[in-house]
Amino acid sequence: MRFVRQLYKLLVDRRRQDQSALSRVQIIIPLVIVALGVLTGASVATYMWNNNQRIRLQALEQELEYVSDGVQASLMVRASTVQRMANRWIAEGGITEQTWYAGARDHIKDFPALSFIAWTDRDLIVRYTVFESPFLSLRGEMYTALESRKEELNRIVAGRESYFSVPFKYQHAPEITALVILYPIFNNDAFDGFIVGIVNLTELYNSQLTRLIDDGYTIAIEYDDEIFYHAGKDPKSLDPEWSRYSDIQVDWQTWKITIWPDIQTIVRSGRSLPLTILISTIIFSILLAAAVRLGLRLYFENNELVVARTRAESEALQKSRFLAAASHDLREPANIASLSLDSLAPMLKTSEHKEIMSRAQDALARQKDNFDKILNLARIESGRVEAIMREINVCEILSILEEAFQPIASRTHNAFHVAPSTVTVRTDPDLLNRILSNFLSNAFRYTDRGPSALGLPA
């Protein structure tokens, strides 16, 4: 008994371990799928984010190239306008005041931000001025400014070179940054003064860069590490990592142009698609994990059912084979008991003893009948029943059945009889007898009066 208990405990523990292992598999595999989905989604989202930032920075570099070319070109156009007036002066040996004013006004009208044009004589006295507000006071200030740079002006005259001043804040309008352009002029190779042009850099670049400013870009232009023009946000508050810059050459000066995109717009637009991909991947992986978990559960449950069914079929087959093989051994004691009772019956004298003998014989007959049914069923299930076919008269089977069931019918006061028949059939007499016996037994057992007749019409 101790061995049996240990064996049972071992089997139960083994089953619990198998169930625990299956439960772990149904949890671990879906978790792995979700984890892989999250990692994949995060990787794709990160790649999309980085790629989006790379594209944005490439676009920023293209915008920077556009700004750099525009800043330099627009200034050079204004400078060439001043140079054309100087060349005309030299070619014509001077220009009348009326002609000068007409040409200067046309140039100022055609080239916005070219806000001041003047001629200074050889003594640096400012004459022939055409200007736009707020540069009204520059005529008086120009002499002082030029006189303070006389040595530098002498070098320009000697080299017959143009001159670009550094950008400066106009003192009467501090929000304006301007730049002075000088071209020396000559009459019969004699120095005859300067053609002076002033470019309003603030107006020039605000109009030129309107599209980028409206799109949220911040632009700063600096010379000698000092910002003289900016549009958009305060450059000092922006992250240099998001900026791109380039250097341009303006005469003898090197200007640095820096551009920043609208960081919030980039983050918003660049985050939406990667975030959508990440969320979609996570949701898909969760649904896939749920489907896999359900599939695993159904698979294991079906597998358990198949194993249980196979085990039950195997046990039933073994039982049937055992009963079929042991049918003779099981019938033999009943047969011996029946023969013994038959031998003992003639020896009984009193009616009481005969009644007891009759009940014993009936009980033994029922026991033999039950054995026959069980063993025949076992033989059928085990597939060992072979029908022995031959032609017989149905009357033979019916007579046997009438003799067997007449005592039962008498006890129930039922006038049971078998109708005579001359029909001949080809069958296995034993199997047919068992089938009809089973029908009659059920009829007597499960009805109030039982059957009244049995027959086979011709």
Describe this structure in words.
- There is one protein chain.
- The protein contains 11 helices and 14 strands.
- It is of the alpha+beta class and 458 residues long.
- Among the domains are: 82-260, Beta-Lactamase (2-Layer Sandwich), CATH 3.30.450; 326-385; 386-458, Histidine kinase-like ATPase, C-terminal domain (Heat Shock Protein 90).
- A hairpin with a 2-residue loop joins strand 9 (244-250) and strand 10.
- It is rod-shaped.
What key phrases describe this protein's structure?
4-stranded antiparallel sheet; alpha+beta; rod-shaped; 6-stranded antiparallel sheet; Heat Shock Protein 90; Beta-Lactamase; disordered N terminus
Q: Averaged pLDDT, please?
A: 76
Order of secondary-structure elements: HHEEHHEEEEHHEEEEHHHEHEEHE
H/I helix tally? 11
- Please, what is the oligomeric state? single chain
Helix content: 55-70%
Note the overall shape: rod-shaped
End-to-end distance: 65 Å
- Poorly predicted segments: 3-16
As a percent range, the share of strand residues is: 15-25%
The CATH superfamily label of the domain at 82-260 reads: CHASE domain
CATH C-level of the domain at 82-260: Alpha Beta
CATH topology of the domain at 82-260: Beta-Lactamase
- Assign the CATH architecture of the domain at 82-260: 2-Layer Sandwich
Radius of gyration: 60 Å
Give the biggest sheet: 6 strands, antiparallel
What's the count of strands? 14
SS-based class: alpha+beta
